[in-house]
Design brief:
This protein has 7 helices and 13 strands. The chain is of the alpha/beta class. The chain has one domain: Purple Acid Phosphatase, chain A, domain 2 (4-Layer Sandwich), CATH 3.60.21. Strands 1-13-12-11-2-3-4-5 form an 8-stranded mixed β-sheet. The chain is globular, with a radius of gyration of 18 Å.
């Protein structure tokens, strides 16, 4: 595994094995939290222009924001579908007619006590031929969002209960989500693992709950891109702060960071 960043260039008119992207939090307003959605669009447009395609596309959770508002309501509004298409048309343009497209459910994708997608969002994705899963597994690979390493059944229930109460309060205090997000990030940002001990504990729990075994585990959730050969874990990062993603080709997993169309950095290479 290489840790020194170097410039990476996608080959023209090439079909790569897989693309892994997580934590876009699409439709999130910058007043609540900054993001890199315009940069993501630039990357996807750049790949399309170069004729890059992928045999598999994995959307590794928290793609559509659904905690700070109802994504389902946004979808059914006038011009709502057009806003969704703005992202998914770009993603689908990078596939082939035979490509597998997998949507992994993340914690911010769901407003449900059973961690399911809103019905109209699920219908929208299925119309686009996405396979919707909590976990994607093969003999060599496990892909999931990663919130499973943070939430158990009881803590998930309490978390969703809290989010629903905030939605009710937002009817009276519209700015409450901005206030709560700032407070959360300052005092209770449990998604992030700041110390080696926190990293070890979080990924230990995630590996156990996912029944990883000797397989490679790919996740998101923490918004911290990383690859650990010992743990056999790759984190794809995010499109809130990092602008990172993972590409697979011939058994090699490349952690990439988008700075501009002319500057894509290879942060790590990982050979399971």
């Amino acid at each position: 595994m290489s840790e020194k960043a170097r410039k990476f260039r996608f080959r023209k008119n090439t079909v790569y094995d897989a693309l892994y992207i997580s934590d876009v939090h699409y439709l999130l307003r910058k007043k609540i939290r900054t993001h890199m959605h315009k940069e993501l669009f630039k990357l996807l447009d750049h790949l399309k222009k170069r004729g890059v395609r992928f045999r598999k596309v994995f959307l590794v959770g928290d793609i559509i924001e659904n905690w700070y508002f109802s994504s389902q309501r946004k979808l059914v509004r006038r011009y709502g579908r057009k806003r969704f298409n703005k992202l998914f048309d770009r993603l689908d343009a990078l596939t082939t007619p035979m490509s597998l497209k997998v949507y992994l459910i993340g914690n911010h994708d769901s407003f449900s006590y059973v961690a399911s997608l809103p019905p109209k969002i699920e219908q929208y994705l299925r119309e686009r031929d996405y396979v919707i899963k909590d976990v994607y597994e093969t003999e060599k690979l496990v892909v999931l969002h990663g919130h499973q390493g943070q939430y158990g059944k009881i803590s998930w229930f309490m978390n969703i209960l809290g989010v629903r109460l905030l939605h009710l309060l937002s009817l009276v205090f519209p700015s409450i989500f901005t206030t709560m997000e700032n407070f959360y990030r300052k005092h209770f940002n449990f998604d992030r693992n700041e110390t080696d001990e926190e990293v070890r504990r979080y990924y230990g729990t995630l590996r156990e709950r996912s029944n990883q075994g000797h397989r490679l585990l790919i996740c998101g959730h923490t918004h911290q891109p990383m690859a650990d050969q010992r743990l056999r874990v790759i984190n794809t990062g995010d499109w809130i702060e990092s602008g990172t993603f993972v590409v697979e080709q011939d058994g090699l997993f490349l952690g990439l960071k988008f700075l501009s169309k002319k500057k894509i950095l290879e942060m790590f290479s990982f050979k399971p």
